[in-house]
Design brief:
The chain is α+β, with helices and mostly antiparallel strands. It has a domain of 75 residues: 2-Layer Sandwich (Beta-lactamase Inhibitory Protein, Chain:B, domain 1), CATH 3.30.1450. The chain contains 3 helices and 5 strands. It starts with a helix and ends in a 19-residue tail after the last strand.
Length: 130
Amino acid sequence: MRATILLLVALPLLPGCFLSRSTVNEPIFEDQIASLVPGQTTAEQAVEVMGAPADVVQLGRRTAWQYEHTVEKTAGLALVVFNMRGVDRHADRVWLFFDEDNVLSHLGATLAGEQAKYSLPWSNPHPKAE
């Protein structure tokens, strides 16, 4: 009898929905990138603007620095024996390339981190425009 009452109380609590959001590293902003000028910005100045890079690659006497900010959003539906979840992950990525004198030679950036959306598996969070 006691187990039946406990089951009847717990059963409605089993199904449910959930949302989660996780980020890795600090956001990257367009004005930060705009302040970096190839041929003028030094590695020291780049650290002041962007902070420490997530990765440094040695290219002979030159270097490449990577900055990355990732946003992941998850939405889920949990029923008694059936669970579904959708995950959407987008990232901001910036690569800075420095010459042998530690002066910025060129850079590349993709800012898509804030495009991550909550969605379940049967929906498309990013429909293509026709």
